[in-house]
Amino acid sequence: MGIALSQETYDALVGLCYESVLDSARWPVLLDALAAASGRQFGAIAINHPGDAAATVTLAARCDPAAIQAYNVHYGAIDPMRELIAATDDGRWNHDRRELPAATLDHHPYYQEFQRAQGMDDRASIRLNGQGACVYVALLTAIGVRPDACQDDLLARIAPHLQRAGTLYDTLTGLRDGLALRDQVLDSLPTPLWLLDEGRRVAYRNAAAQRHAALPDGALCEHNGQIRPRHAAASRLETAILQATGHSGSRRASRIAPPAAGGPDVVVTPLSEDHPDNPLQRPLVAVSVVDPEQQNLRVNDLFQFSRAEARLATKLQEGLSLAEYAERHGIALSTARTQLRALFTKTGTHRQGELVSLLLRLARH
Description:
By secondary structure, the protein is an alpha+beta fold. The protein has helices at 7-22, 27-37, 65-73, 82-86, 96-99, 102-107, 109-115, 149-188, 207-213, 235-245, 292-303, 307-317, 322-328, 333-347, 352-363, and strands spanning 42-48, 56-61, 93-95, 120-129, 134-142, 193-196, 202-205, 220-223, 226-229, 254-256, 265-271, 284-290.
């Protein structure tokens, strides 16, 4: 019987699993600590991307770099455990000596030319996730070393935490990559864009917004973490932001005309947490500065709106209801509805809110 590992050691390993989720620099520390605590002398993490013939070792502990290169170039493709591990459930350890016949261990080129030549004997392997890019952890003993029952039991106890950490890390990496890509896309937009949080403070600004706020003749500027109109009364912008937050009812988009002819419009619209342009994934308010003439020309050309349809589309973005639009322009409500149906058909939308959301989103691009 082996000496039982302390609860302190086990707790430290569990802690390292979840630290690694948030900080990739902790994975080498976890790998080294897990190898030592489980009576192994070597450790590695490998990733098998979809379409690749074999996994590639991306991180190793106590391994000769030349051995890692040899595995990635040649021996990984002939590894006898590769297919067995791929067919095993996530979170379950496989051991070479327990899973393979003695003849394979004694005569297969992988073991004779590679593993034994590197001073490695038995290997314990676990797949952390089987979706997309598969991640594997391998812990190996030196020749002649046999871990005891308590050390093997540690691997079984730590397996669910190790698997969960791998899955969470993969998920968070995808989220980080997605957020970075969204930030890159938003920063590439020529339209100034601010995202405001629940307290109406600036939570995000793209590069164009930073440049615009520094212009002495820009429509908007920033002051104490909030945006303000530079040459107009603040009340209209504040009201529009409150409407977009749903402060006094349902969340509503609006468009603020410039104080002087020829100036840019300010568009204020709610942004749900699952909106594709929302990098922060919580309810926000988007504020953008748009050149209405250029924006209208682009949208009209894109959807081939008639003059009447384009006028209705513009007024709906400004917050007018269909009835208000018909009354102000002296047309029958049925005529306005016919124009609205034409807008639905040309834009592929089905509801007025969906149409306005599309047009406002295009207004920021």
